[in-house]
């Protein structure tokens, strides 16, 4: 049985991050799994056990999410999340090859880390999995709605985000979050959908601070990192997206794969945004393929 150990690290600007580790400490490869916006590391729970058989696995809750410390308006940015990832790697995987896997905001965090720490990235990162994410902010996000309606929704979303960003460390009342479950089901999931996955996702949203829910929105919407991807050193890479993803639709994955020649692109029929829960075997196998390729390249090197 795989043992998952809990730990904390303190970031250089003060907040603490909650981490989970599994697998042998001396494994030849370390996998770091990064979760999506207003979620937490538990969303990767179906991948941890099979991955821990071949590598050391690290998940952590981003600042302002899950069991990690709060976030201020000035630090609710992708820049800061990219720097946080650099600190996490120095703390938990100071040596040896690393495979980075990012879902949604987690994928954007990886791109920001590559942009802000290119030498570090080139030296450490041996493989990538980019899952239900984008390198173009909200350019292609229409929430599965007609374009005129989506524009109105975006205006309302940005306005409410400004309000939420001012509310600090408060978290949504559990009853309110659970009332959102049908909306989250529609927005984040395709078909079929396990009610337990919707509940897990809803509980994660309830743990995110209101400043995180609203504060990161401007930075996420303005992101533009296709040029960063095009300049990355070639490493084994998998790009996955759900056919019914309403937040980062397949066009987002297509542009990422175009910027990363050699990346393996998978579009999962009928799936939504939460691929690690909706299609766990597909995601796990794609990660294992990346890890095997990264391990082989490291041995040859």
Automatic annotation (TrEMBL):
Keywords: Hydrolase. It comes from the Bacteria. It holds the Pfam family Abhydrolase_6. Residues 31-285 form the AB hydrolase-1 domain. GO terms for molecular function: hydrolase activity. Signal peptide: none annotated. InterPro entries: AB_hydrolase_1 (IPR000073), AB_hydrolase_fold (IPR029058), Carboxylesterase_BioH (IPR050228), Epox_hydrolase-like (IPR000639). This is Alpha/beta hydrolase. It comes from Phytohabitans suffuscus.
């Amino acid at each position: 049985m795989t043992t998952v150990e809990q730990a904390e690290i303190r970031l250089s600007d003060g907040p603490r991050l909650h981490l989970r580790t599994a697998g042998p400490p001396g494994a030849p490869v370390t996998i770091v799994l990064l979760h999506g916006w207003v979620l937490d590391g538990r969303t990767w729970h179906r991948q941890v056990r099979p991955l821990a058989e071949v590598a050391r696995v690290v998940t952590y809750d981003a600042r302002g999410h899950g069991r990690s410390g709060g976030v201020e308006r000035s630090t609710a940015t992708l820049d800061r999340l990219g720097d946080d990832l650099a600190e996490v790697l120095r703390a938990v995987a100071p040596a040896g090859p690393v495979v980075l896997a990012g879902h949604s905001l987690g994928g954007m965090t990886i791109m920001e880390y590559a942009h802000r720490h290119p030498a570090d990235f080139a030296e450490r990162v041996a493989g990538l999995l980019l899952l239900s994410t984008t390198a173009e902010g909200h350019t292609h996000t229409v929430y599965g709605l007609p374009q005129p309606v989506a524009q109105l929704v975006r205006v309302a979303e940005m306005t409410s985000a400004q309000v939420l960003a001012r509310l600090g460390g408060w978290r949504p009342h559990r009853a309110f979050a659970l009332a959102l479950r049908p909306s989250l089901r529609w927005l984040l999931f395709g078909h079929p959908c396990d009610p337990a996955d919707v509940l897990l996702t809803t509980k994660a949203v309830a743990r995110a601070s209101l400043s995180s829910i609203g504060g990161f929105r401007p930075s996420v919407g303005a992101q533009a990192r296709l040029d960063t991807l095009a300049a990355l050193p070639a490493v084994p890479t998998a790009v996955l997206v759900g056919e019914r993803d309403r937040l980062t639709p397949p066009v987002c994955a297509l542009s990422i794969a175009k910027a990363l020649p050699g990346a393996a692109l998978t579009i999962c029929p009928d799936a939504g945004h939460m691929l690690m829960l909706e299609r766990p075997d597909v995601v796990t196998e794609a990660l294992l393929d990346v890890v095997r390729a990264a391990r082989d390249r490291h041995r040859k090197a």
